[in-house]
Structures are given as structure tokens and as C-alpha cells.
Amino acid sequence: xxxxxxxxxxxxxxxxxxxxxxxxxxxxxxxxxxxxxxxxxxxxxxxxxxxxxxxxxxxxxxxxxxxxxxxxxxxxxxxxxx
Length: 82
Description:
The protein has 82 residues and is mainly alpha-helical. Helices cover 71% and strands 0% of the residues. The protein has a domain of 44 residues. The longest helix has 47 residues. The mean pLDDT is 79.
């Protein structure tokens, strides 16, 4: 798997995290890694995990509604056959 990330992917991630795309990339290639920057990265990754968790929870709810709709459609079709 490659390590390249597209600008579109970075923009989407920044949008989800409600940060600037500049916050996701280093100032320059020589930027040093400090304990504070590691802590900030961990915090950002926690927000990513939280967002993904909420999204997966919403997905299961949407799937339940879709299943309910399908069952109701089948019932409606049976009702019109009579």
C-alpha cells in the first residue's frame, strides 16, 4: 500500500475534523517532531476515530430504516393484490 495521500483525501479529512488542510501537513520537510506535536496528532486521531464511530453508528441506523421501508413496500404490494 502506498504512502501517498491525495489532496482530495486530505481536504475530506480536514473537513470531517473541522480543521484547515494546512493543519494536517507539516510546515516543511525538516519540521522536528516534538512531544507537543505527537500529543496533537494523538488528539486528532482520537477525533478521527470518534467521527468514524459516529458514522458507522449512523450507517447501521440507515440500514434499519431501509429494511423497514422494504418490508412496508412488500406489505403495501400484498395489500393491493387483494
